[in-house]
Amino acid sequence: MARIAPTPGQKLSYFIFVCISVLILYLDITSNSFQSIKNSFKSFKVSAFYITNEITIEPIKYVINLTKSKNDLIDENKNLKDALNISYLNNYLISRDNNFFKDEEIIKSAIEKKNYNFSYDIAQLRSLDPNIYKCCDRHRMHIEILSNSQNSYKDNVVFNSSGILGLIVDQNKNKYHEVLLLTDVSHSLPIKSDSNQFFCNAKGSGRLDIIVCSYNPLLWKEEMSINKEFYTSGLGGIYPKNIKVGFLKEIVIEETTIVRLEIKLTTNPLEDSVFGVIKY
């Protein structure tokens, strides 16, 4: 049978515990006898909080800060790379090794006055499949022109810091354009030798960095040798004259009246993500 009221023994125990508690409080107030215990307890609380913070919160904060810092570095590196590429484009245009401007005095004047107000727009790469570029006949890339101009860019020349890459083939009046690369099998580039004694229409080979030029050696007497340099002739009316295209890599005699020259280009569209588009 359950007890309804506490027994005398339980009452006595309760009274004793109350007395002991009062005694402890009295001693603590009057003599600070338990100060060291309280300090140890506070120290334990601080240590426990610190350890818990280091184990749980700090790693999370570190990961967040690391991610943010990494993203900031990526953005900064991208901006620096774009600025560097643009400076490379300017350096290429003012180089005495090319002739994007018909009047050479314009280039000399720009160099002397440090007034590099060149007539081209900046573009960024949007798509170029390297697998297709390295294996197939169709060599195209898509770029975004960073300009608010609504003019058509069809047949405008695209170049990077190493030279010309191809031309824009669509008639869109927006920022996104398709570029026909020099190595596309449907592309034709009028070229000449450095002596101005040999002219030819070089076709895209569908191979990486190679264009081909077939000619009749009975009509063109100039001697060909490996590493001979070739330049744009300007005869097509699209590409500027005297831009270095590449050098002779291989001579293939197909017949007595047909010789094929394989010319390795100086440029590679896979090397850059920022390009120039010449404005006419």
Note the beta-strand portion. Answer: 25-35%
Look at the helices and sheets and give the structural class: alpha+beta
Under CATH, the topology of the domain at 188-267 is which?
A: Thrombin, subunit H
The averaged pLDDT comes out at 79
Ranges where pLDDT stays below 50 over 5 or more residues in a row are none
What is the 3D shape? rod-shaped
**CATH class identity of the domain at 188-267:** Mainly Beta
* Elements, N to C (H/E): HHHEHEEEEEEEEEEE
User: What is the CATH superfamily label of the domain at 188-267?
Assistant: Rod shape-determining protein MreC, domain 2
CATH architecture of the domain at 188-267: Beta Barrel
Largest sheet: 6 strands, antiparallel, barrel
Compute the gyration radius: what is it? Answer: 39 Å
Question: How far is the first residue's CA from the last residue's CA?
Answer: 109 Å
Determine the number of helices (DSSP H or I, runs of at least 4 residues): 4
What is the number of beta strands? 12
Query: If strands are numbered along the chain, what order do they take across the biggest sheet?
Result: 1-2-5-4-3-12
Q: What share of the residues lie within helices?
A: 25-40%
